[in-house]
Design goal:
The chain is an alpha+beta fold. Helix content is 32%, strand content 32%. It has a five-stranded mixed sheet with strand order 3-7-6-5-4. It is globular and about 35 Å long. The two termini are 25 Å apart.
Length: 106
């Protein structure tokens, strides 16, 4: 926790599953926006990026073209389980189930 002008915010550390690292590497032009969001989370806090809660402890980081599905771990760690390019306004159930399965194994 950090206290600046009596406002508290949490800094998180981003960790990625190997599958998510590969998915990020496979992105064409959209990976930069995601890296910027990861840097913002690690330096300013999660409240400075677009995010959404799905279910069963699964959350999403949203950029214009990319989504990263994650869970919180101990010691202020965000574990990225799945990264995909956005093609519709709603995340397909396939991606949600895949992310939950990957993160359940950790």
């Amino acid at each position: 926790f950090y206290n600046i002008n009596k406002v508290f915010f949490m800094i998180y550390k981003i960790e990625k599953l190997k599958q998510a690292e590969k998915e990020i590497a496979d992105l064409q032009n959209s990976e930069n926006a995601l890296k910027v969001d990861f840097e913002i989370i690690e330096t300013k806090g999660l409240e400075y990026v677009k995010r959404r809660y799905y279910r069963d402890g699964l959350f999403e980081i949203k950029t214009n073209d990319v989504r990263a599905l994650f869970k919180f771990q101990e010691n202020c760690i965000i574990l990225i389980g799945l990264v995909y390019e956005k093609r519709s306004n709603k995340a397909p159930d396939y991606y949600i189930k895949l992310a939950l399965n990957r993160l359940k194994e950790v």
